[in-house]
């Protein structure tokens, strides 16, 4: 890629972003779109502009984002979101501090070097280009100028250590503040117990659980809720809810039709598959009948479920937070595989079906899934390598000669050259996240947030291994494949050798990501169009409209790995081609701004894990840092720099840094400190409310009838107890 | 060493053992020696023969040992001792089951092989000898007979897995039974808290600690005891106790002298150093005066200590076992390096001076000490290698020619050949254990039992690395040193190569150990002589006599590593030279018998850790097993056996086995399961007694005056509290 196509790519991206931003300003001012641009405020019962300045000029959202505080973020979107911003700030800080030193120092050092770059070290076209002049590739071998790059590597690493340390401390404080809040949060009073041994003769499961915990916590045990197999009840409940929605819709259609003709048109439906086949009936009566049929069926199934489908897991409620926190950290049975107690996640993020999975089953599932992920990562490596090698224009012309006339038009050629490989890459990556989330849930993980973290971790390793290393090495794969075969240790060297060649590829990749990606994110064009289409042609009832603009959450499982990929790319090139740093700064700066706007006004978090995502992010930042340091070791030795071993202490230092940080901070992210849990509450918790918040919707009765819960949901404390 | 010198060595050892056993029978029957042969029973207030048969024939102790049960051992000597017997039984079982298969199978396979052993594969003399005929060295290279040895390796490994699994389960049950016992054990109601942050303005340390725990455990917190710097108080206390003993002694001497002359001789002493210099005074008056002087000084120092020398650690008492168990497992402050809570060991084994050491100080000390131990292990390697190479007779004659006439006498030659290297080794090893215990305590470990375990672990690695590997390789060191230099990976191969050459050395080493070692152990000749000498010439008072026969404990810190060394040696040779197995069986069988007698009648445990020694023993057994398996891999490849990779799964299997066992069982050995702690007590604990049992002797007041404890020893629960 030559310099002009790079500028074209950059300019196009920027223009797209400006257009999208103006579109956003214009669209978000129209009251009809408020559901799309301010759903979070709307759901919290706030007016879109309440507390904000009314003049809506194109940059007012920037001013609002900048003036918002961390407390605002926590109030509107929770601790997890605040932690995500700590991540963005940390990375941004790293690149700003890195750039402030690296750009003024390294660019002149490179530019003034008098070294002709060899053909194979430059970009794929094999022509010398202006960007390469500013990179480390321009320094001759064994040059003492390399000392400047060594110093730069150290500077970046130490800035990273300082910022990460500060960030970890800050996040721990955020978590502590949230956990010690005087609000009553149901999950802080509960623990989940799994691996309950078989019910002893002459006892029910409920009695077994109650007597066990009653004996250990005679004063603080409140009640237990045995996990049941709700599959059938769930199915009936979903069916029932479906018919209720359809009924509401049919009634709305009927009411609508009355406006045109006085008696209206009674809507009809068919009884067969999807309402498309079978006998034609009047919809309202048909749904009404179905609902009347299903209600007793559900009630019956609820009773059967609660009585006969009790499983080997339970949620235990205590009447204070300290006991729950201590219980979740303590060994209960002398064997770890029985009566395993963990802290309860929020009820909305409990994965109920995973709770009764047994200890050894979970262990085995975990290893099997690690193996599948391993295979996935390494079998995708090959196709990605191919794609990256094929999608240079030269190769395309060779493989698909009929494209030649089109491709040779200069304008199209430039655009294609700029975007073709990147687009292939982006589409490719879109297929994976759901598969990984599915795998993570299959591990037997008990909470949604944990599953998301696990999926995010897998996705991170996938992106770094495949996109970064894969593309980098892939671009020189065919020429050097035999070299790897001969000496597998040469992979670090190979990685380092191919870095400068793909620098401009990643430069445009980052630019595309931030301008187009964040432009789309801010303008919400796609959700807006879908919403208006749905509203106009599909939605008949209020609930349906509400569903149509439901904003969703930030989607950490893919967002964080994608950010981490950009971070890894920019970090690894930061010293080799410092020109990439400003792109990193713009990516994370713009991301901070756009997402600040989005979390305050748009996204609604679907769970709260009190910052547990942080250690996970932290480990991956350090992993990237180590990759960067190892790459630099390789790159310096390619430059035949005799002092390149001076870099070797850095990865070792990083490992020690991980160890110290995890040792100091991690345990608090795994469990709640008792001192934190012992802070006073605003009010005495209403344990009944706490307990009820954990009842799954398909089992909750509409009549406030207590007796039906007797079977699986114990009530020891109130009736006097078992033991 | 030829066959006759081996037999001489064996026969001599056996004769020594028989003599010592007869001596034991004869000596233990004399009532004047009962303090030496039955001190444990005496201290427990039992008659030496109570409940035992009266006829004291030479083997009656064997019958008694065999008929004793595990419950007897636990009653007389605690859970730790019972766990040590589980270790002996497991190892014995392994060798018996191994020997039953290996001896009848492998010996004929070796003996009938028609292969001339090469000179460098036999013993140091370079002559063919009868023992080697029965070893694997006698099998020719690439022979299909090697399959029998592969099968034997697998058999030994699988027997080991089965027995270890059973043993781990059994020990866990022993621990559970002890921890759930209805007896009130003070340490189960206490936790130790370390790393208390600096005292806030306007609070005392005591108030800080009390308010912190009162807030977290409002109902179950009983009282706290702040750790103080007792160095000075201890010194005064020791001085006082010393004078008290001297006073009693002087009075006894005076009373004695009255028997000969009516007015007696008033004993005198000198006021200077050690009572040898300075002014001559009447002893009784002088000591009396000193004691009167010291008592108020001690009381004053106690007050100062309790008030002004409070440190950053405390012992916290709860009024039930479950809370204490849960507290010791829970994170209290959000940072792990503040308010670190661990379960309290028994008060007698608390290392008070280590408690106030701070988190990071402990961490750093630990790594520094690991490094020192590493250096110790590897710098001792060289001298041991030299000793083993020098102490062959040939070398001795060369180096010390004046010994030649003595050494050439056949009888002396045989004895020297049999014992010389072993004796050098044993003396060498005697120097180390105290040094390692000192190092372990310097790590900042809070309890004596933990320090003993740590020392024992260090000693194990030392013995295995230096004695076993060192001697084995050392014997061929000089000839092959250059080979290692060229290829450091050859060390496994080298180890395997030199194994058969040193087989007979270890055979005699084991024989010496068990016959002479256990003979001395059983007969207690040395303690007996010391006791009688002391009693006759030194002891004047009852207390002094009691001190003279105090039996001490089993001394796990050296006993277990020594047993482990024998175990490692026998295990590693079990397939190569199966003839060693009977020696292993005799060693552990005899050990079991002799020690059963000793723990029931002699030794008094100095602490009880409820079987925490087991995971430690277990890990080292598996480490030996892996060493054995790796050695076998090496040895098979030396035999040019093409199928030698079939052994490779074994070490991997061992690692998986460690992982599973530790995952399943270890946590219960680290902390008490709540279910176990929740078992009912025989009586409501008297918390005052529990609390007082933790007061160090130098601070305990003789007047039952409560007020003096107010400063460092809080009494929140009874006076109404702080918060």
TrEMBL record, chains A, B:
It is a multi-pass membrane protein. The keyword Transcription does not apply. The chain crosses the membrane at residues 6-27, 82-107, 146-165, 367-390, 419-439, 459-481, 565-593, 613-630, 642-660. Residues 365-636 form the CSC1/OSCA1-like 7TM region domain. Pfam families: PHM7_cyt, RSN1_7TM, RSN1_TM. Residues 5-166 form the CSC1/OSCA1-like N-terminal transmembrane domain. Keywords: Calcium, Coiled coil, Ion channel, Ion transport, Membrane, Transmembrane, Transmembrane helix, Transport. InterPro entries: Csc1-like, CSC1/OSCA1-like_7TM, CSC1/OSCA1-like_cyt, CSC1/OSCA1-like_N. One of its GO terms (molecular function) is calcium-activated cation channel activity. Residues 188-354 form the CSC1/OSCA1-like cytosolic domain. It is found in: Membrane. GO terms for cellular component: plasma membrane. Residues 233-260 form a coiled coil. The keyword Disulfide bond does not apply. Belongs to the CSC1 (TC 1.A.17) family. This is CSC1-like protein ERD4. It comes from Handroanthus impetiginosus.
């Amino acid at each position: 890629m030559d310099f002009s196509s790079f500028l074209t790519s950059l300019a196009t991206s920027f223009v797209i972003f400006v257009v999208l931003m103006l579109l956003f300003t214009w669209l978000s001012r129209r009251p009809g779109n408020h559901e799309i641009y301010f759903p979070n405020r709307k759901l919290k019962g706030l007016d879109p502009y309440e507390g904000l300045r009314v003049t809506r000029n194109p940059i007012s959202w920037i001013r609002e984002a900048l003036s918002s505080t961390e407390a605002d973020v926590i109030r509107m979107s929770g601790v997890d979101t605040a932690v995500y911003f700590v991540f963005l700030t940390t990375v941004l800080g790293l690149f700003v501090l890195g750039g402030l030193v690296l750009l003024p120092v390294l660019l002149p050092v490179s530019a003034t070097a008098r070294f002709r770059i060899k053909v194979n070290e430059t970009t794929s076209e094999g022509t010398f280009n202006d960007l390469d002049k500013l990179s480390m590739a321009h320094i001759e071998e064994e040059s003492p100028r390399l000392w400047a790059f060594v110093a730069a590597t150290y500077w970046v690493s130490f800035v990273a250590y300082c910022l990460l340390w500060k960030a970890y401390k800050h996040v721990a404080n955020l978590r502590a503040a949230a956990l010690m809040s005087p609000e009553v949060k149901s999950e802080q009073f509960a623990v989940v117990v799994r691996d309950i041994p078989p019910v002893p003769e002459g006892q029910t499961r409920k009695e077994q659980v109650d007597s066990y915990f009653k004996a250990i916590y005679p004063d603080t045990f409140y009640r237990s809720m045995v996990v049941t197999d709700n599959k059938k009840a769930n199915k009936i409940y979903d069916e029932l809810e479906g018919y209720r929605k359809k009924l509401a819709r049919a009634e709305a259609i009927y009411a609508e039709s009355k406006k045109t003709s006085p008696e209206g048109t009674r809507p009809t439906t068919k009884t067969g598959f999807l309402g498309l086949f079978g006998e034609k009936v009047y919809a309202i009566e048909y749904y009404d009948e179905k609902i009347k049929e299903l209600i007793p069926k559900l009630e019956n199934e609820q009773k059967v479920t609660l009585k006969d489908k009790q499983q080997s897991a339970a949620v235990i409620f205590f009447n204070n937070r300290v006991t729950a926190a201590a219980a979740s950290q303590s060994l209960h049975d002398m064997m770890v595989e029985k009566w395993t107690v963990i802290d309860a996640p929020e009820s909305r993020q409990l994965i109920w079906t995973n709770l009764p999975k047994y200890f050894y089953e979970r262990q085995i599932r975990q290893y099997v899934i690690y193996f599948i992920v391993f295979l996935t990562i390494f079998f995708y490596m090959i196709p990605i390598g191919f794609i990256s090698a094929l999608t240079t224009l030269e190769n395309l012309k060779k493989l698909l000669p009929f494209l030649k006339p089109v491709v040779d038009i200069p304008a199209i050629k430039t655009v294609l050259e700029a975007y073709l490989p990147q687009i292939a890459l982006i589409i490719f990556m879109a297929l994976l996240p759901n598969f990984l989330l599915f795998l993570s849930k299959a591990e037997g993980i008990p909470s949604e947030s944990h599953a998301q973290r696990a999926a995010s971790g897998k996705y991170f390793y996938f992106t770094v291994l495949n996109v970064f290393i894969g593309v980098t090495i892939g671009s020189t794969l065919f020429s050097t494949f035999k070299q790897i075969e001969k000496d597998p240790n040469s992979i670090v060297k190979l990685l380092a050798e191919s870095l400068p060649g793909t620098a401009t590829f990643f430069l445009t990749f980052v630019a595309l990501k931030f301008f187009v990606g964040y432009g789309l994110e801010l303008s919400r064009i796609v959700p807006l169009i879908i919403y208006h289409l749905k509203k106009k042609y599909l939605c008949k009832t209020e609930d349906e409209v509400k569903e149509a603009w439901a904003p969703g959450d930030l989607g950490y499982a893919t967002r964080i790995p994608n950010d981490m990929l950009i971070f890894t790319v920019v970090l690894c090139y930061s010293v080799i081609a410092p020109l990439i740093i400003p792109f990193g700064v713009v990516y994370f700066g713009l991301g901070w701004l756009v997402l600040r706007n989005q979390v305050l006004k748009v996204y609604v978090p679907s769970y709260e894990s009190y910052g547990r995502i942080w250690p996970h992010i932290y480990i991956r930042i350090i992993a990237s840092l180590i990759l960067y340091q190892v790459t630099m070791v390789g790159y310096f030795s390619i430059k035949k720099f005799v002092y390149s071993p001076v870099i070797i202490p850095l990865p070792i230092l990083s490992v020690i840094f991980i160890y110290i940080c995890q040792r100091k901070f991690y345990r608090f992210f795994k469990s709640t400190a008792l001192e934190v849990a012992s802070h006073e509450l605003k009010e005495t918790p209403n344990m009944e409310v706490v307990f009820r918040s954990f009842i799954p919707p398909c089992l909750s009765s509409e009549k406030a009838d207590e007796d039906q819960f007797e079977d699986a949901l114990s009530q020891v404390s109130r009736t006097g107890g078992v033991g």
